[in-house]
Amino acid sequence: MENSAYLETQSPQEVEITFLAPTLQCHEGVRRTTCSNSETKCNTNGLSLTWNDLWVTVPDGTTGGHRSILQGVTGYARPGEILAIMGPSGCGKSTLLDALAGRLDSKTSQNGDILVNGFKKTLAYGTSAYVTQDESLIQTLTVRESVYYSAQLQLPDCMSKAEKKERAEITIREMGLQDSMDTRIGGWGAKGLSGGQKRRVSICIEILTRPKLLFLDEPTSGLDSAASYYVMSRIAKLDQHEERTIIASIHQPCSEVFGLFHNLCLLSSGRTVYFGNASYAQEFFALSGFPCPSFQNPSDHFLRTINKDFDEDIEQGLSGRKPAEEVINTLIDSYKSSSTYQEVSNGVTEICKKGDGALDKKKNHASFSTQCFVLTRRSFMNMHRDLGYYWLRLAIYIALSLGLGTLFNDIGSNYSSIQARSSMLMFVASFLTFMAIGGFPSFVEDMKVFERERLNGHYSTGAFVIANTLSSTPYLLLVSVIPGALAYYLTGLREGFDHFAYYTSVLFSCMLLVESLMMIVASIVPNYLMGIIVGAGIQAFMVLGGGFFRLPNDLPDPFWKYPLYYIGFHKYAYQGLFKNEFEGVQYVYSEAGMEKVVDGGYILRDTWQVEMAYSKWDDLEIILAMVVISRFLFFVIIKIVENVKPVLSGLTFVAPKKQITQVMVNPLTTPSH
C-alpha cells in the first residue's frame, strides 16, 4: 500500500548518505565570490548566527532533577536565507528559537555556544527583532496608527516625522497591508483584521528598524493554508532586501510554504533529526529508509514519521510499523553518519573562524522625552476609543452616584444627619474607588503590549510608567468630578466650594491609587480573572481595617492595626473626609426638652476616633505620597522581573556525559533609562 510505504525501513545500515549540502543561493544584492574549492559562496554584510552543542534544561518536579528540552543541537543561519525549525509539538522548536533570541524563561538553564558572526557578543539595539506567536496589539488602533506610533518610538529623533511616516507606509506596503491601512486591529467584541493580517502587522512593527536578524515564532499558527502562504511569501521577500537572516519555528507548513524555506532544522524530543537544505530533506529520509509517498506533503511525512505521541494507537492499526522511537533513532544515526552532519559542523566552524563582518553599531532610538510623549498620546487615544476602559465605568459611577444621592437626598444639618453623612462618605471612599478594578482587563492587555515592545527594545520602562500615569489622569479626574458632584450635592453635604474641592481631590487620589495598585497586580498576575480576585481581596482587607466598621481603638493589634490600619489608604481617606465635613461645625439636638449643641471636633474625636494631631490636608498628602510610592513600586517590580530573568536563565548545569562551557548571548537588547 503506497500510503504506508514510508513505514518500512529499507536497510538503513547499508546506506551511506553522501549527498552534499547545497550551496547558498544568493539573492539580488548579495555579491558572489568563487572559492578555491570551486564552491560558490556569498560575501554578505548580514549577520550569521551559529549555535554549537546547545543544551537547554528545566527542573523536573517529579524526579527533582533536570529534564532536557534541547540536547546538543548544532546549526547555523546565514544572511539571505530562511531557516525553518520544524518538529512535532513539544520537540523544542520554540525553546530553540527563544534560546537563540535570548528569551528563555527564568526556570530554564542554557549551555553551549551561540555566536553572532563568530563573536560572543550581544547584538546592538535595532539589529534583531522577534515576532511572537500571539499578536499583542492595541485593538483600538488602525494599522497605520499602530505602525506609525511604533516608528516614532523606535526610530531616532534625527529622522523627521515625515521620514518616519514614510518608513511606516513603506513597511506596510511591503507586507501587503496597503488596503487595510485605516482598518482597526479589532479584537473581542470589535470586528477588525483577520488573523493573517494581524500577524503581518506584528511583523511590520518589528522590521521598522530594518533588523538584520529576524526571529518568527509560529508565524502561520491559526491560519489556513492560503493565509499561511501569503504571510510566509511576504516574509520570504524580506530576505531579498538588506541581506536579512530569518529564523522561523513552524509547526506543519503546506507544500507551497515548505518550498519557500532554504534550510530546515528538524527536531524530535530536543534532538536534531536533520539539518540542511530543505529541498534535500526528502532524499535524506528516502536514503534512511523512510521515503515520502508520491503526492504527499513532505512536511506532513516528516512530522508523521518522527511523531511518537500517538505511537501506541498507530501500532494497533498498522502492525508492520516500527516504533516511532526506533525510527527516530535510526534517522538520528543516519544523520550523524552522513556527510551533511560533518558539513554542518564544518560550516559552523568556518563561520566562527571567518567572523564574516563586524557587528552593526547600536542604532539610535527615540529619546526618553519622545517616548513619553508618543506613549502618552497613544495610550490616551486607546483609552478614549476603548469603551470598557473608562466610559463604561463613568456610566456605572453616575448611576451609583444618582442612587447614592437619592438614598441620602437632603439629609439636613441636624444631629441625626451625622450618621448618614458618615455612611455616605465611607461608601464614596470605599466602594466608588473599589470599582476601579473594572478596568483590570484593559490593564492586562496594556501589559501584554508593553512586554512585547519592551523585550524588543522599543522604549524604556520609565517612559511606559510615566505615560500610563499621564494618559489616565484626565479620565480619572472626569470619573471623580462628575459622579462625585452628583453624590455631593444631592446628599447636601457641607456647603462651600473649598470643601467640595477637597472631597473631589480625595476621591480622585483614591482612584489614582487603586489604579496604581491594580497595575502592580497586573504586572505580577497576568491572568485578568485571577488579577480581579487578588485586587478585590486586597481592597476588601483595606476597607475592613480602615477604622469604620471597627473603630481604631477596637482593632486587634496584630495584622489589623499593625500594619494594615496604617498602610491602608482608607484610614486617611475616611479621616480626611470626616475632618472636611465635621470640623468647625456645630450640630443641635434635643435632650429632656432642652436644645444642646455638639461640636464637630467632639464627633471626630469621640465618635470616630479621628487623629486630630494633623490636618485634613496632611491626610490628602499621605494619599498622594502613596500614589507616588505605588507607581514607583510598579516600576521597580517590572525592572526586577526584567533583570532577574536573564540572570536566572544563565544558571549552569552539567549535561549528561560531558561538561559544557556556558556562553550566554542575548541578541535582543533593550534601551535603558
UniProtKB/TrEMBL annotation:
Segments forming domain ABC transporter: 49-294
GO MF annotations, alphabetized: ABC-type transporter activity; ATP binding; ATP hydrolysis activity
Membrane topology: Multi-pass membrane protein
InterPro entries on file: AAA+_ATPase (IPR003593), ABC2_TM (IPR013525), ABC_transporter-like_ATP-bd (IPR003439), ABC_transporter-like_CS (IPR017871), ABCG_dom (IPR043926), P-loop_NTPase (IPR027417), Plant_ABCG (IPR052215)
Statement: the UniProt record of this protein carries the keyword Amino-acid biosynthesis: no
Chief location bin: membrane
Transmembrane regions listed in the UniProt entry: 387-404, 424-444, 465-488, 500-521, 528-549, 622-641
Compartment annotation: Membrane
This protein's GO CC annotations: membrane
Keywords, sorted A to Z: ATP-binding, Membrane, Nucleotide-binding, Transmembrane, Transmembrane helix, Transport
Superkingdom of origin organism: Eukaryota
Entry similarity comment: Belongs to the ABC transporter superfamily. ABCG family. Eye pigment precursor importer (TC 3.A.1.204) subfamily.
Protein name: ABC transporter domain-containing protein
Annotated organism of origin: Lactuca virosa
